[in-house]
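anyone seen this seq b4? input:
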Amino acid sequence: MSDLLRYSISSWMQATECLSNNSRNLVITVSSLTGKSVEGQLIAVNHPAYGILFAAMTNGSGELISDVDEETDIPIPWMTTDEILTQLKKFGFYITYKQEEHLPGSQLTYLMTLYNLGFQHITTIEVKSSKVTRKYVIAFNGTDEPEWLDWPCTTTKTTFESKINEGKVLNISALTQKEKFNWDWLNFVANIPDILEDNA
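predicted toks r here
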């Protein structure tokens, strides 16, 4: 195990430089798709004889993309960073993704705004109702909501909506959807000042 090639990246474009432990014929390609019909980033594992063996898209949008299930009105999520990394590991690519240390300037500015509004933490939370469980990215203050400082966080839809109406919690999934900020690295309770310091 100690002889395995391992990599740490902060953007998907860096994955193209990673080598597979299974075969030198396996390569990762990353394509940026831009257009009215489809926009996003495509990560793929390619083999010269067999072609594309795995592909995943991130932050996709456009006419070709459905954001919600038309039958249930439930959002259709993209694969998370961890899920993509697990699939890459099947092909011998051992990669750690540390995006939280290399966030884009616009996302850092947004986090500064949240901090100036009095929010100390951000995390993901599962909100359960009688029919469905949905995941949101939220900003909150651990002094007001100490029970949410332990990850993973879960709550009921009634409690979640009550905290939002009181102004104690901010649903930043909804607020940052247009900006296409990537939050799928957020698999812990993060202190906003720590993230800002890591990116300084």
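The chain has two domains: 6-97, 103-198. The first helix runs from residue 81 to 90. kinda curious what u guys think
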